[in-house]
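G., the chain you wanted modeled:
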Amino acid sequence: MTPGAPTEPQTDPLARLAELPGVPAAVTGVREAVDAVYGHRVMRRRSPEVSAEAALRGARASAALAGADWALEEVRRRSDFGADPAARTVGAALRATAEATESLGIWRTSPLRVLARLHLVAAGEPEAAGDRDRIGRPRLAGEAVDEPALAELPGPPGVDEVAARLDALAGLVVAGSAAPALVTAAVVHGELLALRPFVSHNGVVARATARLVLVAGGLDPKAVTPAEVGHAEQGAERYLAALDGYLTGNPAGVAGWLAHCARAVELGARESVAVCEALQRGAA
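Predicted structure as tokens:
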């Protein structure tokens, strides 16, 4: 392609999705909501505290969507996350959320490596020694997905299709896109849930990766708008219903999922504005 020549539409499929009905308005709403957080006076001097609180609340919400709906204060006070299945789910969400922002440096060049790392971190130490070789890599033929929170979705595709679509997704990330970060994050999130490439923790990994994309794409560089909170606030039923629309592949279904993800970011931003207000009152 000649430098400066117009880009062929098919070279940037994510940009085309950004033009679906209702999506431009959703992107504008998200930008305004995120700007409200970054424009708060508390962010000028206490943004690390807001980021830390956003990570904690985001992880709690991600765990809730995975079936472990703990109170925020319970997550805050606990140190042992290996005692039972719910505790392990919360621990997985906390670890994956923290790892996501540590992977920014390699996401744009090696996204599949990042996904493998996020799954390894989320899965933690397996209960059975024989499960160690099942983590940190996509599932193999004959390996089933064990994820009750996603059981209502249509069954995941076979491993050959998973491999092909993961490669295609990685190609999109490496190539870059003119699409807003919100759109890229929503597509990455939706694809990972559609594929369920790992034997477990796909939801936690998908939500942590979406967080990473919002940061890497410049929409939320300080990771202070926990979209996971917004997804949880809208409810697991609506989350799965919106995802079901995405899985159809039709424009209305995909646009609905993008709008759902946009609303989640808006609600996450609202949560962080409330955190800023609380910090401001505490400092007064």
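Residues 1-9 have pLDDT under 50 and may be disordered.

Shout if anything looks off.
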